[in-house]
Design brief:
- The protein is mostly helical and 231 residues long.
- It has one domain (22-230): Orthogonal Bundle (MetI-like fold), CATH 1.10.3720.
- The chain contains eleven helices and no strands.
- The chain has helices at residues 2-16, 20-53, 59-69, 74-85, 100-124, 130-136, 141-151, 153-168, 172-178, 188-197, 201-230.
- The longest helix has 34 residues, at 20-53.
- The radius of gyration is 20 Å and the shape is globular.
- The termini are far apart.
Length: 231
């Protein structure tokens, strides 16, 4: 018990004295996760709209594939992205391996199915009169898209929060694609794994506390968005 308390006390010292190594991992995590969630929303929201709004051949198969991707292992995604971005891969010339944008590519693939699936569900469950009403008023396809997404804004925000929660806590993609390079691509989760393996439990606990704080904020946001959507 004393061992854990000592580690916790050292963790607070690292956090409140502005330890550079600790805050480097935090800043990298914030940059990568923010870039990833913006890409997830920019790509996933229109695709989710099309999946939930339109009827086309293979729609059910695509919906099933999207739902299956919700539980896709992060290590497998990391392996696939690593293969694509490595020097022998088709995208090796872009020089994204072991970079923050490279990690963001993998994390975007991780969060994208969540945004697509939840946006599609939100669009499917909307008032059935919205689509014909907009068409009667002469709305263009773009206006239908924007109006529908606006009406589903709380559900989309919930999708964003859920995707962000999974992105910020993953480790497989960050470790394989980022390489866990100190001061460069080391995130909170990869730093926790490394420092704990070296016996530096104070650093691991400090970063774990930050991750718990992020998880708490994410869960608090989910509760707030659900209440707003139910009103």
């Amino acid at each position: 018990m004393d061992y854990l308390l000592d580690g916790l006390l050292q963790a607070f010292v690292l956090l409140f004295t502005g330890n550079e190594e600790t805050y480097s991992a935090v800043s990298v995590t914030v940059m990568v996760s923010s870039l990833s969630i913006v890409c997830c929303l920019g790509i996933g929201a229109p695709l989710g709209f099309l999946l939930g709004h339109s009827e086309f051949p293979g729609r059910k198969a695509l919906r099933m594939l999207t739902d299956t991707m919700l539980s896709f292992p992060t290590v497998v995604i990391g392996l696939l992205v690593y293969a694509m971005l490595s020097s022998k891969g088709p995208l090796g010339g872009l020089g994204l391996l072991f970079t923050i944008p490279g990690i963001a590519v993998g994390q975007t693939l991780l969060g994208l199915p969540i945004v697509i699936a939840m946006t599609a569900s939100a669009v499917e469950n909307m008032d059935a009169r919205l689509k014909p009403t907009l068409r009667t008023l002469g709305a263009s396809p773009r206006q239908v898209l924007l109006t529908t997404l606006w009406e589903a804004r709380f559900h989309m925000a919930l999708a964003a929060v859920a995707a962000y929660g999974r992105i910020v806590s993953e480790i497989g993609i960050s470790m394989m694609v980022g390489g866990n390079i100190k001061w460069h691509t080391r995130t909170i989760t990869t730093a926790i794994a490394l420092e704990t393996g070296k016996g530096q439990f104070a650093m691991g606990i400090a970063l774990g506390l930050v991750l718990l704080l992020v998880a708490f904020i994410v869960n608090l946001s989910v509760v707030g968005l659900r209440r707003m959507a139910e009103r």
